[in-house]
Amino acid sequence: MTTSAFTKVAEYSGKHPKPADITFAYGTAGFRTIGETLESTVFRVGLLAALRSQSKQGQTIGVMITASHNEERDNGVKLVDPMGEMLQQSWEGYCTSMANAATDDDVVAVLSSIIESEGIDVSIRPKVAYARDTRPSSPLLQAALEDGLAALDVEAINYGIVTTPQLHYFVRCINTADSAAAAYGEPTEAGYNKKYGAAFLRLVEGKPHPSKLYIDAANGVGAPQVRKLAEAINSPYFNIEVCNGDTESLGKLNMGCGADYVKTNQRQPASMTLTPGDRYCSFDGDADRIVYYYADEHGSFHLLDGDKISTLAATYLRDLVSAAGIEDLQVGVVQTAYANGSSTSYIKDTLKLPTVFAKTGVKHLHHEAEKMHIGVYFEANGHGTVLFNAGAIAKLREAKPQSPAQADAVERLWALRDLINESVGDAMSDMLLVETILICKGWTLAQWDEAYTDMPSRLLKVVVNDRTIFKTTNAEQTLTAPKGLQDVVDALVAKFPRGRSFVRPSGTEDAVRVYAEAATRSDCDQLAYSVAGAVFDKAGGRGERPAEFI
Ligand code: NG1
Ligand code: ZN
């Protein structure tokens, strides 16, 4: 293909010039920064989506415009691969080069070089499915994306305002539609609600109804979507009330609410008062994370985070596999270094299940979970899912139940697979999974919480001049640079019984994260703030020094 074939690309690119003073990087969650600065990037992601589709023989690629739990003025964009998974890592570099091309001609040059390196057949008609969240900058970015798609004559489907995991699901449905064995479902909102709703009702049928579930939707896209899911399910088994469901007023998205606020601050959303005995959960702004919580009879707040969801799911699956009598069908758990130490001990010592650590970012967990028969993976922040690999499917197909109880367990494993969004962590599907398990066990949130007691933990953020100087190893738990800083962290950790702390640069924000755990709340906070202080002092802290713990 000659450069002149891309005159339309150069012309449309001219409508979306790159801001000269910004360097973009495709990170853990795609591109993410201040919404208004992303127009050129999103236009170019449209071009990349087209090339990615052609490189995958015309399969549909997804593009999601969202910045998840980040503040409202931020926005972001990421690509979704054909099976609904995150973009293959080897293409992330192309995204970064494309986003940073200085001129329209440079855009065309990067495009041509990707076509050449990947041997892309540009005669294939590309297909792209796209959607956005409720952010004020999203319509502008959507228009830029549509220009990118038009420039390469893409056959496009606009899904409008949906959750991130819904888009991942649609992409997988579209690309598996022609395969009887792999068909994932109907690629529509109604199809999504029907699939997950039906699996849920199949699993809970005949059990007592649960009490109402209050859902904090972070004033984001989860609010309208979970209302539609409830309409579709239309059953006392799914009795919900949406809180923080205002997607119209400016400034409300993720503000004092949502899964990230609840997890980081270890408290309920600012606008909510918890009634002891009632059940609550929070989604994040694009509804791919979920955490549960409740107040005990003294009014104290208790969080059931991604680790608790993961252990609940792993326990239930392990017990079902055992009840099904299927030999050598293993359940394993994937965590990150942010997993609470108590959860890791519980998985190893009580559940006796294999557990592995992956780097932060769901794509890393996903790849580890794929290696297990049934791989349960969750980040502590509530982002995760369960995967059944080909080995597990084969074992389920070959199962020869010897009793009605075994047959029921096999049937429930199949139904659970239908209930779970395997393409990516999904707050709505995960919520239905948790609800199913609690209904089947007849458990309250407090009973679920009894499995183990969290170690006190604290997550802090330190703003530094240059976070790229931070390098890590050992699943991001040990710093190799800046030189000497890890020794300082180790010396601080050694002062606190059962202390653990690590430092890593964020992949989604311009900051360094400090995590700490220790036997008591006050030790934990002292450890966290002393490590954060050391990072600030020794590695170019900017702005305010992390407040000393008093
Ligand atoms: P960074 O900013 O790299 O820490 C955060 C979360 C990740 C993941 C990504 C994507 C923590 C500590 N980090 O990454 O787990 O969810 O955002 O959204 O929660
Ligand atoms: Zn999210």
Note the topology.
Layout: H1 7-13, E1 31-34, H2 39-55, E2 60-65, E3 74-80, H3 92-100, H4 104-118, E4 127-132, H5 138-151, E5 155-161, H6 164-176, H7 189-204, E6 213-216, H8 222-233, E7 240-243, H9 258-265, E8 279-283, E9 290-295, E10 301-304, H10 306-324, E11 331-335, H11 341-350, E12 355-357, H12 362-370, E13 374-378, E14 384-388, H13 390-398, H14 404-419, H15 427-441, H16 445-449, E15 457-462, E16 471-473, E17 478-481, H17 485-494, E18 500-505, E19 512-517, H18 521-538
Parallel strand pairs: 2-4, 4-5, 6-7, 6-8, 11-12, 11-13
Antiparallel strand pairs: 1-3, 2-3, 8-9, 9-10, 13-14, 15-19, 16-17, 18-19
Helix pairs in contact: 1-4, 2-3, 2-4, 2-5, 3-4, 7-8, 7-14, 7-15, 10-14, 10-15, 17-18
Bound molecules: 2-acetamido-2-deoxy-1-O-phosphono-alpha-D-galactopyranose and zinc ion.
Keywords: Carbohydrate metabolism, Cell wall biogenesis/degradation, Isomerase, Magnesium, Metal-binding, Phosphoprotein
Organism: Coemansia spiralis
Function: Catalyzes the conversion of GlcNAc-6-P into GlcNAc-1-P during the synthesis of uridine diphosphate/UDP-GlcNAc, which is a biosynthetic precursor of chitin and also supplies the amino sugars for N-linked oligosaccharides of glycoproteins.
Hetero groups: 2-acetamido-2-deoxy-1-O-phosphono-alpha-D-galactopyranose, zinc ion
Gross morphology: globular
Quantity of strands, as a count: 19
Number of domains: 4
Biggest sheet: strands side by side, in what order?
1-3-2-4-5
Estimated helix fraction: 40-55%
CATH class group of the largest domain = Alpha Beta
Oligomer: single chain
**CATH topology grouping of the largest domain:** Alpha-D-Glucose-1,6-Bisphosphate, Chain A, domain 3
Mean of pLDDT: 96
CATH superfamily of the largest domain: Alpha-D-Glucose-1,6-Bisphosphate, subunit A, domain 3
CATH architecture heading of the largest domain:
3-Layer(aba) Sandwich
Distance between the termini: 65 Å
Report the uncertain regions.
none
Structural class: alpha/beta
